[in-house]
Structures are given as C-alpha cells and as structure tokens.
Amino acid sequence: MARLHPRLHDAISLLPAHRPAHLLTRHSVRELAKNGFADYRLPLTAEGVAMAREWGARLERPVQAFYSSPVGRCVDTATAMAEGALEAGLIEALPEVVTDPTLVEPGCYVEDINRVGPTFLKMGALSFLNQHLKTPFDGMLSPAAGRAKLAGYLYQREPEPGSLAVHVTHDTILAVLVAELEGRDAIDEEHWPWMMEGLWVWFEDARMHWVWRGHHGHRDLALA
After folding, report:
1. Separation CA 124–CA 55 (nearest Å)
2. Is the bond leading into 106 cis (omega within 30 degrees of zero)?
3. To the nearest whole number, what is the mean pLDDT of the chain?
4. pLDDT, tens digit, for every residue of 50-109?
5. Is the CB of residue 206 less than 8 Å from the CB of residue 148?
6. Which uninterrupted H or E stretch holds 99?
7. Crossing angle, helix 72-87 and helix 46-56, to 10 degrees?
8. How far apart are the two ends of the chain, measured CA to CA in Å?
9. What is the CA angle 212-60-91, rounded to 5?
10. Cα(188)–Cα(126) distance, integer angstroms
11. Least confident of 32-41, 164-173, 197-206
12. pTM of the prediction?
C-alpha cells in the first residue's frame, strides 16, 4: 500500500496548539494516466480511499471544515478524510465538503486557460512549472501573486483556535506554492509532492507560517 511522506505526521507537533491551522494537501492515490497527463476524470483507487481515511483519523486535533477542488478525486479524498476523522472522534458528524475553484486550475494561478493550456500540454507539468517560476507566463498569476491569493483564501477560512481546516488540491498548485515560499526558482522530482502530502499553515504576528517536510518557515503576510 502507498504510504504517507515520512515527515508529514510528525509535523503536527510543530503546529502551535493555540492557533487555527490549515492543511493544504494533495489528493490521495488515483488511477494512472494512460497518456502521461492526469486529466480531471481520473478517480481515486480503492487504495487511495483507504489511505485518505486512515490519514484523516490521525490528524490529532479537531477538524472544523473540509474544502476541496471541485475535481472528483479531490472531493473523494476530503470525504474519506472526514470519515476517518469521524471514526477517530475528531468531528461529531460528517460535514459537507465545500468545493472552491481556488484549489484547482483554472482558478488558482491560471487566469486564461486558452492561452496557457496548449503550452502546458506541449511542455509537460515539470518543465512548464520550472519555466513559470523563472518567467511567469501570460495568462497566469506570478508565483508571488499566486502565493498571496492562496494566503488570502486560507486566511478567510480560519477555523477556531486549536482546530484544523483541511483543503484538498493538486500537485501542480502545491509544488509552485512550496517553491515560492522556499525561495526556489526550480522544481525537480525530489520536490514533487507525494500523494496525500500537505503543507501545514498558520497565521501569527502578521506572518504566514508553514511547515513542509518538517521544515518551518515564515513570510510577512501578503493577501490577495
């Protein structure tokens, strides 16, 4: 069975107990793409559902809300995580999974899919994102502007102190966000988010704090 990134669960201990926190996570294990591109129709596997349910039971703090990209495999990931959280007593009843276009493309970084889409298909995800980190494409928000948009999205959805909000998104969005936060202009296979891997986020002292793979960083808060 697929496994979580080995530094994902332990990072919970790095979150301040008194602050609202967010988990911005990639969806769980999906069916393999036949043509090299993971279109939005690909569903979770049975293994992916089980993995998401197991992870939801291990979040260790009350979960106030589950948000998701509108794509089916993301909604199903959030639903399975909620089922696991319910079994673990982290929530009292299964909530509605709230979908939001900020967690998908177009909607997050991509503003004009007609201008950007053909280039993405031609270059492939990794080459496309690496080029965008260096010279932003027309029809897309810059990495910095995208980070501000995502920070604003999270800030507007703060859970109660000591609680967690879960947001299920896609690997490309998470990869660019983490690279920009870490000050990198390149992504390689080692940086690529694992299935179900997530970025922990909280806001404190006018800063956006995050933990990624056990490393804590922060930026002055910029919202869009």
Report:
1. 30
2. yes
3. 94
4. 999 999 999 999 999 999 999 999 999 999 999 999 999 999 999 999 999 999 999 999
5. no
6. strand 98-99
7. 40
8. 39
9. 120
10. 7
11. 32-41
12. 0.95
